[in-house]
């Protein structure tokens, strides 16, 4: 069963949680100031925490309008504007589209759902879910360095992609279609007064497990991905709010 350990982030201003033994990438290479990056020592999995500018409501509404069937229950009735809850969920989608490589297809496996953060005072809008990035074999999915260079762009998006076992697609399916999938668990915390969207991404590329036929290893890695977000929901805490000044 995966184990996790408390981890100070942004110089201790935020208290987070990481899988035990994961490596702080800032000890290996330069990481942007707004970002924290942790790497698995044994696989290609990664954990990214970002402090981003918030997605404005008009941009979230445009994202919702561009993909009306993607986020179930968020599309407003004709002639009615979406409520803030729908816009918040669309903001999560916008962040995910923003890190998508042009050759990728984004599948919503678990739509963003409201979660409660017990270590935050008052009501904070936070959303967790899971997506799959399908990439052509031999290219497509952006590297971590490319993900850090965030840029908006139009992407292909599909809703309700089938799940084969614990993954977004079986190894046979992926081999047959010439694609590979990276599973991504996400947590979006909308800090309105601080004008910040705190975004957590846990990426688990399936390719290395598929190539060696390691279904059990993939299942274990999926448990890690699911567990990181669940542990952060329980334990994420801002210690020094001056970080956002």
UniProtKB/TrEMBL annotation:
Entry's Gene Ontology cellular component terms: nucleus
Composition skew (Low complexity), residue ranges: 145-176
User: Region Disordered: what ranges?
Assistant: 138-178
Q: Which UniProt keywords apply?
A: Protein transport, Transport
List GO BP terms, alphabetically.
Answer: protein import into nucleus
Pfam families membership: Mog1
In the record, what terms sit under GO molecular function?
guanyl-nucleotide exchange factor activity; small GTPase binding
The UniProt record lists the keyword Protein transport: yes
Q: Domain of life here? A: Eukaryota
Question: Where is coiled-coil annotated?
Answer: none
Record's family? Belongs to the MOG1 family.
What is this protein called in UniProt?
Mog1p/PsbP-like protein
Which organism was this protein described from?
Answer: Aspergillus violaceofuscus (strain CBS 115571)
**Taxonomic classification, please?**
Eukaryota, Fungi, Dikarya, Ascomycota, Pezizomycotina
